[in-house]
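Key result, reporting period 2: structure in, sequence out.
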C-alpha cells in the first residue's frame, strides 16, 4: 500500500503468500490499516482494542435501538465484549473483528424497521461490506445467517408482518454490501 501497489502478494509469509486473495488477512478492512502506520505489536494491540470497542459500541447501539435501558444496553455490551467467545478468540483477529460487526448488522436491521430510508439501507450495505472485509469467512456466514433470521423473524416481541415488509429492501442492501466487497472475494 505505501508504495502505491495493491496488496496482491505478501512476500514475508512462507516463500510468498497471496494477500488479497486470502480473506483471513483482511487486507481491505479499514481497522487493519493500522499495520501500515504502526509497528507490528502496536498495530496488533490497536486493532484488537478497536475490535472490542466496535463490538461493545455496536451492542450498546443495538440495545438502545431495541428499547433497552442504558444500563441494560451497557450490560449487554460488556457481556458480549467480555464473554467467552470474544475472549477465547482474542488471538484470532479476523474472527473477533467479524463477530464485532454482528451487533451493527442487528442495529441496522432494527433501525431500518423503525424508520426505513435510503440512507439507512446504504449504511446497512456498508455494514455488510465491513463484516465481509473483516477477514473471517465462517464468522461472516454465521453473522449474515443470524442477521437474516433476525430480519425474517424479528427480535423478542416483534410481529412478523413488519419484518416481512422490510425484507426486500434489506435483501437489496445485503446484495449491494456483498457487491462492494467483490474486489476482496473475487480473487479469494
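The corresponding designed sequence is given below.
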Amino acid at each position: 500500500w505505501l508504495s502505491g501497489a495493491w496488496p496482491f502478494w505478501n512476500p514475508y509469509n512462507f516463500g510468498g503468500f497471496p494477500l488479497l486473495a486470502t480473506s483471513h488477512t483482511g487486507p481491505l478492512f479499514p481497522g487493519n490499516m493500522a499495520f501500515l502506520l504502526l509497528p507490528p505489536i502496536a498495530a496488533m494491540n490497536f486493532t484488537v482494542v478497536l475490535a472490542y470497542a466496535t463490538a461493545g459500541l455496536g451492542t450498546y447501539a443495538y440495545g438502545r435501538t431495541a428499547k433497552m435501558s442504558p444500563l441494560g444496553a451497557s450490560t449487554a455490551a460488556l457481556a458480549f465484549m467480555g464473554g467467552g467467545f470474544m475472549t477465547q478468540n482474542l488471538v484470532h483477529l479476523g474472527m473477533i473483528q467479524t463477530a464485532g460487526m454482528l451487533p451493527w448488522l442487528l442495529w441496522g436491521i432494527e433501525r431500518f424497521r423503525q424508520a426505513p430510508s435510503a440512507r439507512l439501507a446504504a449504511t446497512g450495505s456498508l455494514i455488510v461490506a465491513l463484516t465481509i472485509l473483516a477477514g473471517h469467512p465462517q464468522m461472516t456466514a454465521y453473522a449474515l445467517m443470524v442477521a437474516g433470521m433476525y430480519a425474517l423473524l424479528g427480535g423478542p416481541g416483534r410481529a412478523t408482518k413488519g419484518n416481512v415488509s422490510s425484507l426486500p429492501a434489506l435483501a437489496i442492501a445485503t446484495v449491494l454490501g456483498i457487491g462492494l466487497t467483490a474486489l476482496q472475494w473475487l480473487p479469494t
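The chain is about 65% helix and 0% strand. The mean pLDDT is 88. This case is discussed further under Risks and Mitigation.
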